Amino acid sequence: MKAAIVHSRTIGSKQGEEFFVKKRLVFWGLFVCALQASAGNSDCTAIGTRLNDMASNDQQIRQEWNVLEQNSKGTPAEKEALQKRWKVIDEKNLRQLKDIIAACGWPGTAKDSHSAWLLAQHADSDLAFQREARALLVASVKNGIAAARDLAYLSDRIAANEGRPQEYGTQFSRPDRCHLVMEPVDDRALVNRRRLEVGLPSLEEYEAEGRRWFIPADCPAEPSVAQ
């Protein structure tokens, strides 16, 4: 089973940077409150609240998965049920995010942009939309609204989904509960320079934080990565 970090391709669910684990097989998502407005009549003044609710639900389901993954007694049936709920939620979030962007464009505040980025980051079922979101995010970064680190994560996510090397090393796979494996990068030294430029910690620090967040304490320690 593969996963990839943010969430698990993003390290940690701390303020700012998260360590997301993206499951290649079909996982990701969550949403409890539905948008009733269509693209034609959405109230763009309220998108901040909507995006925040969607992003909170997105993170909640992933936290539930992480807890279940770290529980050695978790059953296949429990995992399957959670994966199904996760998939339904991500699909719903994707539909709603598309409606919001179609009606209102990319969010105009840093906070709302971050929420939209998070949802686009997990829209792995629609690579074409992820590319569109990246283009909007590029413009937002140039306008001084969106965070450059968000663009780094989404760029890497798309690269990993397309089978290309990452530029920032943000995406990891989780083949089992005791291992994190970085998706291919072009060059570790160059990656660390790029990470520094956008305010991200080194790959070595990132990998260590990922293990702290996602690898259970009963797993054996992994050897240090060669510098």
Could you describe the 3D structure shown?
This protein has helices spanning 6-9, 47-70, 76-104, 110-121, 127-142, 148-162, 188-197, 203-214; strands spanning 12-13, 18-19, 172-176, 179-182. With 227 residues, it is mainly alpha-helical. It has a two-stranded antiparallel ribbon with strand order 1-2. Strands 3-4 form a two-stranded antiparallel ribbon. Strand 1 (12-13) and strand 2 form a beta hairpin. Helix 4 (110-121) packs antiparallel against helix 5 (127-142), helix 4 (110-121) packs parallel to helix 6 (148-162) and helix 5 runs antiparallel to helix 6 (148-162). The longest helix is centred in the middle third of the chain and has 29 residues, at 76-104.
How many strands in all?
4
**Percentage of residues in helical conformation:** 40-55%
**Span between termini:** 28 Å
Q: What's the number of helices?
A: 8
Amount of beta strand? 5-15%
Spatially, the strands of the biggest sheet line up as 1-2
Low-confidence stretches: 1-41
Task: Name the helix and strand elements from N-terminus to C-terminus, one letter apiece.
Answer: HEEHHHHHEEHH
Main sheet summary: 2 strands, antiparallel
Specify the structural class.
mainly alpha
> What is the arithmetic mean of pLDDT?
83
Shape by Cα distribution: globular
Radius of gyration: 17 Å
Question: What can be said about this structure in brief?
Answer:
Helices cover 54% and strands 6% of the residues.
Write the layout of secondary structure elements.
Blueprint: H1 6-9, E1 12-13, E2 18-19, H2 47-70, H3 76-104, H4 110-121, H5 127-142, H6 148-162, E3 172-176, E4 179-182, H7 188-197, H8 203-214
Helix pairs in contact: 2-3, 2-4, 4-5, 4-6, 5-6
